[in-house]
Design goal:
The protein is mostly helical and about 110 residues long. About 55% of the residues lie in helices and about 0% in strands. It has a single domain, classed as Orthogonal Bundle (434 Repressor (Amino-terminal Domain)). It contains five helices and no strands.
């Protein structure tokens, strides 16, 4: 029997961490992002950062314009069904903290 074709999934936790990094590096707050995207409350932004949900395509487009990057740069895809570590980081100490927390989350989930 032919195996179904699989497509790469988006790693929601790593994407959230990456969005958080872009927000922090921009000097903006979650409230600033909420206002920029015309959201009625900050909850969706927190849910994106925490890897609970992904931004809509419209919000990804607006965020990419705000941060001066392509939409694809805001997303982290899973490699071979497993999460990849976030490598992109302008601030090394911040990147070290992200990787530390990611590893802790991975241990808890295992």
């Amino acid at each position: 029997m032919k195996q179904p074709k699989t497509y790469p999934n988006i790693d929601m936790i790593q994407t959230g961490l990456k969005l958080k990094m872009y927000i922090d590096n921009s000097g903006m707050s979650v409230k600033d992002i909420q206002e920029y995207l015309h959201l009625s409350c900050p909850q969706p932004v927190y849910r994106w950062i925490n890897g609970k949900i992904l931004p809509s395509v419209d919000h990804l487009l607006m965020l990419s314009e705000l941060f001066g990057t392509h939409m694809e740069e805001l997303l982290v895809k899973k490699q071979n069904g497993a999460s990849t570590e976030l490598v992109f980081c302008a601030d090394k100490s911040f990147g070290d903290r992200i990787i530390f927390y990611y590893r802790k989350l991975s241990e808890i989930a295992a």
